[in-house]
Amino acid sequence: MRLLLQTSVKEWVALRSSVNSNVVPVIDCHLCNKFIREVPLLLNIPQSTVSTIITNWKQLGTTAM
After folding, report:
1. In angstroms, what CA-CA distances link 44 with 2, 3, 39, 40?
2. What values do phi and psi take at 62, rounded to 5?
3. pLDDT mean by block of 10 residues, the chain; 65 residues
């Protein structure tokens, strides 16, 4: 099972208030099954930023950049 599924909803809600303003919408879009190429277009941020945020969140279970 991926680390992505190990983050509980309560933990994610707690993290929302303490992270970079770009991180929350990126993870929310990812959790809503948006394609990785759609997210930067929707949020008007670079593709590399989106990729870094999602990769860190999946592999490390964190959103620290």
Report:
1. 28, 27, 8, 5
2. -135, 160
3. 52 60 82 87 89 85 61
Identify whether 65 is part of a domain: no
Residue type at 54? Answer: I
Domain count, the chain: 1
CA distance linking residue 55 with residue 15, whole number of Å:
17
Full domain range(s) for residue 13:
3-60
Q: What does each C-alpha distance from 25 to 1, 17, 56 come to in angstroms? A: 24, 12, 15
5: left (phi over 0), alpha (psi -120 to 50) or beta: alpha
The encoded tokens of residue 32 equal 């809503």
Q: In this structure, are residues 2 and 58 in contact, taking their beta carbons and an 8 Å threshold?
A: yes
